[in-house]
UniProtKB/TrEMBL annotation:
Coiled-coil spans in chain: none
A cellular-component GO term for this protein: cytoplasm
Signal peptide from the UniProt entry: none
Source organism: Glycine soja (Wild soybean)
InterPro entries associated with the record: P-loop_NTPase, RLR_Helicase
Superkingdom classification of source: Eukaryota
Protein name: Endoribonuclease Dicer-like 1
Gene3D superfamilies xref list: P-loop containing nucleotide triphosphate hydrolases
Amino acid sequence: MHSCATAVAKKAEVIRERTGYQVGHYCGEIGQDFWDARRWLREFDTKHVLVMTAQILLNILRNSIIKMEAINLLILECLHAMKKHPYSLVMSEFYHTTPKENKPSVFGMTASPVNLKDKADGC
């Protein structure tokens, strides 16, 4: 598995092991970029938690496959949420335009800012 697919799968496995929930994991490198709305709706109906890359989330929001209002909790790696990164675009295009009463809760995670300068230059 490629690094992105591995990271997403590992996060999903930890959630599955700790909660017992039905958890799906999604990354463009493992094919979900080509799913239609019907396939995504099956996932939404059968899973409690969906772990995905920011780009997959951005794609399904932009294609109106899911609405921000349907998300209960959005967990972001805030370290990456700058400039035109998909996390930043999800927030600006969808989260901030959703009425307050319909917004999901957001849990933002970040790493130590020690290497932030190098990361910011590449985003």
